[in-house]
């Protein structure tokens, strides 16, 4: 029932693999997709991954830098997979502990790992234990307790209690109350009834009193009662004396020197504080929780280095994960792509989308200025046919940009033009006409401005999906604010979902990159950058840092992470 099982190192060396009977396709494709989309992107908080028709479960062994992956058809419900992959990990570690403990990457190439027999035995045990037990047959009515009750026992009386069958006499006479006995005088067991009989002291010659039967020469010593055995008391006193001389030094070294294996219990309080810190820096709550879970799985089982604490180890791992998330898994080089499109004599098309009021038109003008500065001609397509003043705003930007770069400096041709058809028209049709016009007039870049829309507005989301599906732009940029927190996740998820649902292709076109606006207003609360890149897996292409055309920057991942981790 399993398609494959693979054990490989984090360096990419396959140690052992299994392929199910009748499976002809190689498992390299699903495993490579898992490495690219999960392991390299620091998304190991969830132990499952879906690739086409396969469902993959994986487990990381951080002590020996190994990855265990099992794949099966996602239409199957295999309840034993989680326990099975744990058993395989433990048996593989125990069997090849010496080989895996060797230093250097050559240990994986020199040693030969034979694991077929153990794997087959563990698989048989797992599949045998998961066979559903036959259900217990339902009892008949005569076998139930309800059938044994009488009708009278189920009738409620006026007082609220159910009536009970009378098995004895109808009226039982209550016993008569007995009179209390007369209190008798107390008799002292020591004998005697007078005070003289109770006096056991004697008078000395000097007039003082002493107890009978005791020596009057020396006072009696107080009696000490030991509740602990003598050997425990000696051991305690010995440890106490040792701590007096060496407690300070050894206590300091114990806090500094790390020579233990990290466990979930060690990291849990620190990760909880880290999660609260990330949420306070505007990271979405779900994303912060997933990041901490990913770091916990990445560190669990690792042996701490010398003179390192758990807090510093967890913080360093979290910083590395955040930098990895912000660094794109694919490079977005607009200038290179524009040059390639120019060589093919076609315009490079960029579509801007996003919610209302985030600054799509303003940042479109900034990117136009950046492209003009790099020697390209730009055509702006006014496809926002809903908002009043949208076309006039773009016309103002066009006039100002042409004033900064007069046509006389470019052979009498304006470097930026506006293509508009007014209001109330079909946005997809306007974009198609603009692309055709740019191809005929040899424009290098077409920037398509779309109407702002909320992610819950189904008609407008359908129109956006139609525009992208019909015109197939080279780059789809989502424009979002740096001020949002949890809302960024909802916006991006629903925008991507709408593009996928209304696409006519088997491989729908989704968001390719992000433009983060108003980045100069958030100080060190840069968590929106983490939320947006984590949820889409796409890079932040530009960051808006002001109101002028030159206030456009590329994202510095390490600077953002340093600001995020600053207390």
UniProtKB/TrEMBL annotation:
GO terms for molecular function: GTP binding; GTPase activity; signal recognition particle binding. Residues 141-151, 201-215 have a biased composition (Polar residues). It comes from the Eukaryota. InterPro entries: AAA+_ATPase, Longin-like_dom_sf, P-loop_NTPase, Sig_recog_particle_rcpt_asu_N, Signal_recog_particl_SRP54_hlx, SRP/SRP_N, SRP54_GTPase_dom, SRP54_N_sf. Residues 539-552 form the SRP54-type proteins GTP-binding domain. GO terms for biological process: intracellular protein transport; SRP-dependent cotranslational protein targeting to membrane. It is found in: Endoplasmic reticulum membrane. SUPFAM superfamilies: Domain of the SRP/SRP receptor G-proteins, P-loop containing nucleoside triphosphate hydrolases, SNARE-like. Signal peptide: none annotated. Gene3D superfamilies: 3.30.450.60, P-loop containing nucleotide triphosphate hydrolases, Signal recognition particle SRP54, nucleotide-binding domain. SMART domains: AAA (SM00382), SRP54 (SM00962), SRP54_N (SM00963). It is a peripheral membrane protein. GO terms for cellular component: signal recognition particle receptor complex. Residues 158-168 have a biased composition (Basic and acidic residues). Residues 128-218 are annotated as: Disordered. Its main location: endoplasmic reticulum. Keywords: Endoplasmic reticulum, GTP-binding, Membrane, Nucleotide-binding, Receptor. This is SRP54-type proteins GTP-binding domain-containing protein. It comes from Pygocentrus nattereri. The lineage of its organism: Eukaryota, Metazoa, Chordata, Craniata, Vertebrata.
């Amino acid at each position: 029932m399993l398609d494959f099982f693979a054990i490989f190192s984090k360096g990419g060396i396959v140690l052992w693999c299994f392929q199910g009977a009748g499976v002809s396709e190689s498992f390299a494709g699903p495993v490579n997709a898992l490495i690219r989309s999960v392991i390299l992107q620091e998304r190991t908080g969830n132990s499952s991954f879906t690739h086409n028709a396969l469902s993959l479960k994986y487990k990381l062994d951080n002590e020996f830098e190994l990855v265990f992956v099992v794949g099966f058809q996602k239409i199957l419900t295999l309840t034993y997979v989680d326990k099975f992959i744990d058993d395989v990990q433990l048996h593989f570690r125990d069997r090849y502990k010496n080989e895996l403990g060797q230093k250097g990457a050559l240990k994986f190439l020199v040693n030969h790992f034979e694991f077929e027999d153990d794997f087959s035995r563990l698989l048989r045990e797992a599949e045998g234990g998961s066979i559903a037990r036959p259900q217990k047959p339902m009892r008949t009515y005569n076998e139930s307790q309800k059938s044994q009750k009488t009708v009278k026992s189920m009738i409620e009386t006026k007082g609220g209690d159910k009536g009970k069958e009378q098995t004895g006499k109808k009226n039982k006479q209550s016993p008569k109350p007995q009179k209390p006995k007369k209190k008798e005088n107390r008799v002292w067991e020591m004998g005697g009834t007078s005070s003289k009989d109770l006096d056991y002291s004697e008078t000395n010659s000097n007039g003082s009193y002493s107890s009978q039967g005791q020596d009057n020469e020396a006072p009696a010593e107080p009696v000490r009662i030991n509740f602990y055995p003598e050997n425990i008391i000696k051991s305690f006193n010995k440890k106490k004396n040792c701590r007096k001389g060496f407690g300070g030094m050894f206590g300091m070294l114990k806090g500094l020197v790390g020579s233990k294996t990290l466990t979930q219990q060690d990291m849990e309080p620190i990760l909880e504080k880290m999660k609260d810190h990330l949420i306070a820096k505007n990271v979405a709550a779900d994303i912060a929780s997933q990041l901490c879970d990913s770091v916990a799985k990445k560190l669990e089982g690792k042996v701490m280095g010398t003179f390192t604490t758990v807090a510093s180890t967890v913080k360093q791992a979290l910083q590395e994960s955040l930098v990895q998330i912000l660094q794109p898994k694919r490079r977005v080089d607009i200038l290179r792509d524009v040059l390639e499109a120019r060589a093919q004599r076609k315009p490079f098309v960029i579509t801007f989308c996003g919610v209302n009021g985030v600054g799509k038109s303003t940042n479109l003008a900034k990117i136009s200025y950046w492209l003009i500065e790099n020697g390209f001609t730009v055509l702006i397509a006014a496809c926002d046919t809903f908002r009043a003043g949208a076309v006039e705003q773009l016309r103002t930007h066009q006039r100002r940009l042409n004033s900064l770069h007069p046509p006389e400096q470019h052979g009498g041709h304006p470097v930026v033009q506006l293509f508009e058809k007014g209001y109330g028209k079909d946005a997809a049709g306007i974009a198609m006409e603009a692309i055709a016009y740019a191809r005929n007039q040899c424009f290098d870049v077409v920037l398509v401005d779309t109407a702002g829309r909320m992610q819950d507005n189904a008609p407008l989301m359908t129109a956006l999906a139609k525009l992208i599906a019909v015109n197939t732009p080279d780059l789809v940029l989502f424009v979002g604010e740096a001020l949002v927190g949890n809302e960024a996740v909802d916006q991006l998820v629903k925008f991507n979902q709408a593009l996928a649902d209304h696409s006519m292709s088997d491989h729908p076109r989704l968001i390719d990159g992000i433009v983060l606006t108003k980045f100069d207003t958030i100080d060190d609360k840069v968590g929106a950058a983490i939320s947006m890149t984590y949820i889409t897996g796409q890079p932040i292409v530009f960051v808006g840092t002001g109101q002028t055309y030159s206030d456009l920057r590329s994202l510095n991942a390490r600077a953002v992470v340093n600001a995020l981790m600053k207390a």
